[in-house]
Design goal:
It is a single chain. Helix content is 30%, strand content 33%. By secondary structure, the chain is an alpha+beta fold. The relative contact order is 0.16. It has one domain: Aminopeptidase (3-Layer(aba) Sandwich), CATH 3.40.630.30. The protein has a 7-stranded mixed beta sheet with strand order 1-2-3-4-5-7-6, sandwiched between helices.
Length: 155
Amino acid sequence: MTGPAIRLVIGPWPALRSDASSIREAVFVEEQSVPLEFEYDDADAVSLHAVAYDSAGRPLGTGRLLPDGHIGRMAVHRHARGAGIGGAILDALIEEARRRNHRRLLLHAQTRARRFYETRGFRAEGDEFMEAGIPHVLMALSLEDGTGDAPAAGR
Protein backbone atom coordinates (compact mmCIF):
# COMPACT_ATOMS: atom_id res chain seq x y z
CA MET A 1 0.00 0.00 0.00
CA THR A 2 1.29 3.43 -0.84
CA GLY A 3 0.57 6.32 1.45
CA PRO A 4 0.46 6.56 5.21
CA ALA A 5 0.91 3.66 7.55
CA ILE A 6 -2.42 2.67 9.04
CA ARG A 7 -3.61 0.52 11.87
CA LEU A 8 -6.71 -1.50 11.07
CA VAL A 9 -9.03 -2.58 13.88
CA ILE A 10 -11.83 -5.09 13.34
CA GLY A 11 -14.50 -5.61 15.93
CA PRO A 12 -18.11 -5.30 17.05
CA TRP A 13 -20.21 -2.13 16.91
CA PRO A 14 -19.97 -1.30 20.63
CA ALA A 15 -16.15 -1.19 20.40
CA LEU A 16 -15.94 0.83 17.16
CA ARG A 17 -19.19 2.79 17.14
CA SER A 18 -17.76 6.18 18.05
CA ASP A 19 -14.99 6.18 15.45
CA ALA A 20 -17.02 4.48 12.69
CA SER A 21 -19.89 6.90 13.29
CA SER A 22 -17.65 9.95 13.07
CA ILE A 23 -16.40 8.83 9.64
CA ARG A 24 -19.83 7.83 8.34
CA GLU A 25 -21.41 11.09 9.42
CA ALA A 26 -18.61 13.16 7.87
CA VAL A 27 -18.73 11.28 4.55
CA PHE A 28 -22.35 10.27 4.11
CA VAL A 29 -24.33 12.84 6.09
CA GLU A 30 -22.20 15.99 5.72
CA GLU A 31 -20.42 15.42 2.40
CA GLN A 32 -23.07 13.43 0.50
CA SER A 33 -26.21 14.81 2.20
CA VAL A 34 -27.60 11.43 3.23
CA PRO A 35 -30.23 12.03 5.92
CA LEU A 36 -28.92 11.02 9.35
CA GLU A 37 -31.93 8.74 9.91
CA PHE A 38 -30.87 6.67 6.85
CA GLU A 39 -27.31 6.21 8.05
CA TYR A 40 -27.88 3.87 11.00
CA ASP A 41 -29.84 0.64 11.06
CA ASP A 42 -30.25 -2.56 13.04
CA ALA A 43 -27.50 -4.22 10.99
CA ASP A 44 -24.83 -2.19 12.80
CA ALA A 45 -25.35 -4.18 15.99
CA VAL A 46 -24.86 -7.55 14.29
CA SER A 47 -22.13 -6.58 11.81
CA LEU A 48 -18.39 -6.83 12.04
CA HIS A 49 -16.86 -3.36 11.64
CA ALA A 50 -13.44 -2.24 10.44
CA VAL A 51 -11.86 1.12 11.21
CA ALA A 52 -8.52 2.34 9.86
CA TYR A 53 -6.47 4.76 11.97
CA ASP A 54 -3.48 6.94 11.13
CA SER A 55 -0.26 6.88 13.17
CA ALA A 56 -1.72 9.46 15.56
CA GLY A 57 -4.78 7.29 16.23
CA ARG A 58 -7.22 9.39 14.19
CA PRO A 59 -9.94 7.39 12.41
CA LEU A 60 -9.60 7.56 8.61
CA GLY A 61 -12.01 5.04 7.15
CA THR A 62 -14.56 2.37 7.96
CA GLY A 63 -16.68 -0.45 6.56
CA ARG A 64 -18.81 -3.32 7.81
CA LEU A 65 -19.53 -6.98 7.04
CA LEU A 66 -23.05 -8.16 7.72
CA PRO A 67 -23.75 -11.75 8.81
CA ASP A 68 -25.32 -12.51 5.40
CA GLY A 69 -22.18 -11.54 3.46
CA HIS A 70 -23.07 -7.98 2.52
CA ILE A 71 -20.32 -5.40 2.78
CA GLY A 72 -21.45 -1.87 3.41
CA ARG A 73 -20.97 1.58 4.85
CA MET A 74 -17.54 1.84 3.24
CA ALA A 75 -16.28 5.38 3.81
CA VAL A 76 -12.94 7.17 3.91
CA HIS A 77 -12.44 10.77 5.04
CA ARG A 78 -11.92 13.07 2.07
CA HIS A 79 -8.39 14.05 3.15
CA ALA A 80 -7.32 10.38 3.30
CA ARG A 81 -8.66 9.17 -0.06
CA GLY A 82 -6.31 7.83 -2.69
CA ALA A 83 -3.84 6.41 -0.17
CA GLY A 84 -5.07 2.81 -0.23
CA ILE A 85 -7.08 3.02 2.98
CA GLY A 86 -10.38 1.95 1.41
CA GLY A 87 -8.62 -0.97 -0.28
CA ALA A 88 -7.07 -2.08 3.00
CA ILE A 89 -10.47 -1.97 4.71
CA LEU A 90 -12.15 -3.87 1.88
CA ASP A 91 -9.38 -6.47 1.77
CA ALA A 92 -9.71 -7.03 5.53
CA LEU A 93 -13.48 -7.47 5.26
CA ILE A 94 -13.08 -9.90 2.35
CA GLU A 95 -10.54 -11.89 4.35
CA GLU A 96 -12.87 -11.97 7.34
CA ALA A 97 -15.69 -13.16 5.05
CA ARG A 98 -13.44 -16.01 3.86
CA ARG A 99 -12.66 -16.89 7.47
CA ARG A 100 -16.40 -17.02 8.15
CA ASN A 101 -16.89 -19.29 5.12
CA HIS A 102 -18.96 -16.89 3.06
CA ARG A 103 -19.11 -18.05 -0.54
CA ARG A 104 -20.43 -14.86 -2.05
CA LEU A 105 -20.21 -11.22 -1.04
CA LEU A 106 -22.62 -8.49 -2.09
CA LEU A 107 -22.48 -4.73 -1.85
CA HIS A 108 -24.31 -1.68 -3.11
CA ALA A 109 -21.60 0.43 -4.74
CA GLN A 110 -22.06 4.08 -5.49
CA THR A 111 -21.65 4.09 -9.26
CA ARG A 112 -18.70 6.48 -9.00
CA ALA A 113 -16.91 3.87 -6.86
CA ARG A 114 -17.62 0.94 -9.20
CA ARG A 115 -14.06 0.77 -10.56
CA PHE A 116 -12.65 0.64 -7.02
CA TYR A 117 -14.67 -2.52 -6.27
CA GLU A 118 -13.85 -4.04 -9.67
CA THR A 119 -10.15 -3.87 -8.77
CA ARG A 120 -10.93 -6.29 -5.92
CA GLY A 121 -12.83 -8.72 -8.19
CA PHE A 122 -16.39 -7.50 -7.66
CA ARG A 123 -18.64 -7.53 -10.72
CA ALA A 124 -21.78 -5.48 -11.33
CA GLU A 125 -25.11 -7.28 -11.48
CA GLY A 126 -28.27 -5.65 -12.74
CA ASP A 127 -29.21 -2.08 -13.43
CA GLU A 128 -28.29 1.10 -11.64
CA PHE A 129 -30.68 2.09 -8.83
CA MET A 130 -31.07 4.99 -6.41
CA GLU A 131 -30.33 4.63 -2.71
CA ALA A 132 -30.45 7.63 -0.38
CA GLY A 133 -30.63 9.82 -3.50
CA ILE A 134 -27.31 8.46 -4.87
CA PRO A 135 -26.92 6.17 -7.92
CA HIS A 136 -25.74 2.67 -6.97
CA VAL A 137 -25.12 -0.69 -8.59
CA LEU A 138 -25.31 -4.14 -7.01
CA MET A 139 -21.90 -5.81 -7.09
CA ALA A 140 -20.87 -9.33 -6.17
CA LEU A 141 -17.73 -11.32 -5.48
CA SER A 142 -17.52 -15.12 -5.49
CA LEU A 143 -15.18 -16.59 -2.90
CA GLU A 144 -15.88 -20.21 -3.86
CA ASP A 145 -12.75 -20.69 -5.96
CA GLY A 146 -10.51 -19.47 -3.17
CA THR A 147 -9.04 -16.58 -5.13
CA GLY A 148 -11.80 -14.03 -4.80
CA ASP A 149 -11.32 -13.16 -8.47
CA ALA A 150 -14.26 -15.01 -10.01
CA PRO A 151 -17.38 -13.03 -10.88
CA ALA A 152 -20.55 -13.55 -8.81
CA ALA A 153 -22.46 -10.49 -6.72
CA GLY A 154 -25.21 -3.44 0.05
CA ARG A 155 -24.50 -0.39 1.08
